[in-house]
Automatic annotation (TrEMBL):
InterPro entries: RNA_pol_sigma-70-like, RNA_pol_sigma-70_dom, RNA_pol_sigma70_r2, RNA_pol_sigma70_r4_t2, RNA_pol_sigma_r2, RNA_pol_sigma_r3/r4-like, WH-like_DNA-bd_sf. The lineage of its organism: Bacteria, Bacillati, Bacillota, Bacilli, Bacillales. This is RNA polymerase sigma factor. The keyword Zinc-finger does not apply. NCBIfam families: sigma70-ECF.
Length: 179
């Protein structure tokens, strides 16, 4: 891969990779650093892309692995305490960017959600447990199928479907409580 191709890949997928990492970490600074790491790995490991999945899925798998490696690191374990419950100050802005026109009214739940304010919906999604949040974000924001999500995460398709169902139910319940 040459530098021009890398720039094109970063322009095309940079926002999606950053947002996906942010959804996994809920931290802007971690998302910045890890997104850079993803594109460095992409640059040096492009020959490992076999074409068995979409290029976006391949990048997301690199991103997911980078997040999990970071979580295992000593720095993360030491710096995590105290930050876990608080969302970054930029959360409202991220919610607008992440949800602006991207929420699709594909189900009865989503038709109900469409009448709600997008920021409120993304705030609720960001407070879901990590597995539910990841499945729902990949489904809603990136339009991935259960098969693609299973391939990316290593979960079975049944687990993906179950997490999507439970995540939607949790979001719907929380939004009804907020009314």
């Amino acid at each position: 891969m040459d530098e021009d191709t890398l720039r094109a890949v970063m322009e095309r997928f940079g926002g999606d990779v950053w947002n996906y990492i942010y959804y996994l970490t809920s931290n802007c600074e971690q998302a910045d650093g890890l997104a850079q790491e993803v594109f460095v790995k992409c640059y040096y490991r492009i020959e490992t892309y076999r074409g068995g999945s979409s290029f976006q899925t391949w990048l997301f798998s690199i991103a997911r692995n980078a997040v999990f490696s970071y979580r295992k690191s000593r720095f993360f374990r030491k710096s995590l305490w105290g930050d876990i419950a608080a969302l970054p100050d930029g959360m409202e802005k991220i919610g607008v960017n992440a949800g602006g026109g991207a929420v699709v009214a594909a189900s009865a739940e989503m038709q109900y959600f469409s009448s709600m304010h997008v920021n409120e919906i993304w705030d609720v999604i960001m407070k879901l447990p990590a597995g539910f949040r990841e499945a729902l974000v990949l489904d809603l924001k990136y339009g991935m199928s259960a098969k693609d999500i299973a391939e990316l995460t290593g979960w079975s398709q049944g687990t993906v479907k179950s997490r999507l169902h439970r995540a939607r139910r949790k979001v719907q319940t929380k939004l009804k409580e907020m009314e």
